[in-house]
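Meet the record:
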Amino acid sequence: MLDAPIISDAEYDALRQRNAAIEARFPELVLPESPSRNIGAAPAEGFQKVRHALPMLSLGNAFSRADIIDWLDGIRRFLRELQNPDVVIEVRCEPKVDGLSCALRYEAGALVRAATRGNGDVGEEVTANVRTIKNVPGRLKGQDWPAVLEVRGEVYMTDLDFLALNAQQEAEGAKLFANPRNAAAGSLRQLNPAVTASRPLRFVAHGWGEASEPLGRTQTEALGRIHRWGFQPNEPARVAAVTGTDPGELSAYHEEIEQKRSGLGFSIDGIVLKVERLDWQGRLGFASRSPRWAVAWKFPPERAVTVVEEIRCQVGRTGKITPVAHLRPINVGGVLVRRATLHNADEIERKGIRVGDTVVIQRAGDVIPQVLEVLLPQRPADSAPYRFPGNCPVCASRLVREAGQVDSVCTGGLVCPAQVVERLKHFVSRDAFDIEGLGAKNIESFHDRGLIKTPADIFTLEAHDGLTAAPLREWEGWGEKSAQRLFDAIRRARTIALDRFIYALGIHQVGQATARLLARHYLSLARWRQSLSAAQEEHSEERAELLAINGIGEGMAEELLGFMAEPHNQEVLDELTRPRGEEGPLVRVIDFERPPAASPIAGKTVVFTGRLETLSRSEAKAQAEALGANVAGSVSAKTDYVVAGPGAGSKGRKAAELGVAVLSEAQWLELIESGR
């Protein structure tokens, strides 16, 4: 929960800070239901779910001047007119308030709904609670507001209010909050609005979602109107001018705010940079779950010194073994740190970490605890090098480490309880089947009782429940209504979109973005399975097709092929989707829906080659994908169009050999405009 110190900012920012690295390389480090696997917090039981009209996406993180240069360079490469370094980019700079993201919807000037970020697509309705926040207007000021307006910002607590609240909590013998953010989150997410009303919450506006009319031409102009309508601005803010990729003015603002950090009166963990021009924001669009036109530049992490009391190895849902340092508890940046990942055996050896060592730790990006170095002068005289285990700590199966790989993997597969349970937790997690009431603890409980051992068991749980000596409604902590709610949730989950289904399978390296890529390309579960099965042949057309998907590299392709090559995985898929008489299959997987057929390139496979004159390569690809096309990296017989600029080279020649239509950039632009 957001009000528990152990996960305050840590898991919330983990996805934002190291999404690609963690989801692609280390998915086992974080539990599926943890906020670090999602954009926000899981909607709590007792709150109504609200689907955002426009997704509330997270920001990408930057930690250095070099990261900001890379961000600016990416913007200039994406938009053709900005590739001239003399064209000035105006950037709005704001403090990054460390609070709980919230969206306030106004209709005809009146507040009608408030919702937390949730997972970015679905949040919790907290309207009654937000109405108790004194600086949130129940009705917008002025007259020039849009008929529909969603104001987005942060619910937070000032430092002084936080101290006063904790003093009150202590006096009442209640649990203390670790930091202002946890206090704000815990206060807003109360089932009783009276509790929220007793807490000193505030709201600061920094953006907007749905709006029935344009709010301005720039970020600052739009925010100025929002502030005039009654909202507290995010200050101190500034608009900086950037020539080329020189972040000089941005760096100056970053340093200034870091120096003022302690005197602002509220918690911040960095600054936010946004491209000023809204038309440029629209064209830059989004990469995965983050906007290209904005970034969070975090402050350096805090450090501390503690002792490694023990090193234990954890088994992830894919079988990867992760050593974890269990530390003497220490407070770092308002979070009590007890553990730090050591990644793998090579990392332990490289840093020379031993049990009993005194070590320097930090929360990377104020998020993930990591061991920086060993203080050798303080090493105990009787210490010994750490010996990495040769067998799984859970099932005792042999550990293997493939050549060229850094990770050790348990060979136990589905016989390893650690993997089975973790795979099941992932299967039912919010971004997968999203079965409300079937969280980590209940999965463990049902597995321990032998009721759920495979994904198929989830969907036959109700039938089996009627045959057990002690039905679920009689279990401790359960009742007739709670049991029925769970069974109803399972029934609702039997229909699922293809991309969520692929993600639910827990294939190594296949996160949400990759699952969506695969769904968009193959369209149906049957074609995906058939193509991957045929792609087992090294020189097959299906393998070439897989490798040609933009965003699928060789490593990820091998993981997909390895998954589909395992007979037990095929059995799981068959069991879930096999027709069962009139009832149909346990799970109905919905084909991926293309954009409206009005798009002339919907469902087509497109390859860009050579130098484009009007669009950058990145913008062209994003534009094509938005219109429903599959953008591939190589030409095959299944390619529909090759868009060739000067210097097309071998791809152009191969297209001619295969009889694939080759379009100039002008012809391509004419084609996509014809459907608009």
The first strand starts at residue 49 and ends at 51.
